[in-house]
Amino acid sequence: MNRKQQGVALVEFALVLPFLLVLSIVTFEFGRAIWQYNALTKSVRDAARYLSIQTPGTKIAQARNLMVYGNLGGTGAPLVMGLAPSHVPDPTWQTAGTAPVINTVTVRISGYTFNPMFATAFGLPIGSVTYSDITATMRSYL
């Protein structure tokens, strides 16, 4: 190896390293955002499924607990960091049709904001994202 070229690889690595770290952090945060969105979507579907076999207008608190904590009792930590019962408005029941009458129940999570673990990546801001309403509607058994 030529003596003039010693250390060139180290200098190139030092120049590329910040870009690789920014790319890694952004990819990590994007993956977390998708995971949290999927967890919220699953919890909304579970609550809609639970309410679809209940008498309309009942078991609202249990469904809210199911969406936020993953259990009917409302114990433990929230499924997703930052999720609170205040993000869950009351479900709505609707009927449509005449023969047969179709009953549906709709549940939603609204106003949830994803907050990244890293506010910045080497000076580049990584902002919060407020998800649009996450809803699920299912046909009600009763």
Q: How would you describe this structure in keywords?
A:
142 residues, alpha+beta, 3-stranded antiparallel β-sheet, two-stranded antiparallel ribbon, 19% strand
Reading the helices and strands in chain order gives HHEEEEEEE
Report Rg. Answer: 23 Å
Structural class: alpha+beta
Q: Strand content of the residues, in percent?
A: 15-25%
Q: Any idea what the shape is? A: elongated
Tell me the domain tally: 1
Biggest sheet, in brief? 3 strands, antiparallel
Strand order of the largest sheet: 1-2-7
SS elements, strand count = 7
Mean pLDDT: 90
Low-confidence sequence ranges? none
Terminal Cα separation, in Å? Answer: 81 Å
Proportion of helical residues: 25-40%
Number of helices: 2
Task: Please explain how this structure is put together.
It is built from 2 helices and 7 strands. It has 142 residues and is an alpha+beta fold. It has one domain. The protein has a 3-stranded antiparallel beta sheet, covered by helices on one side. Helix 1 packs antiparallel against helix 2. The model has no long low-confidence stretch (mean pLDDT 90).
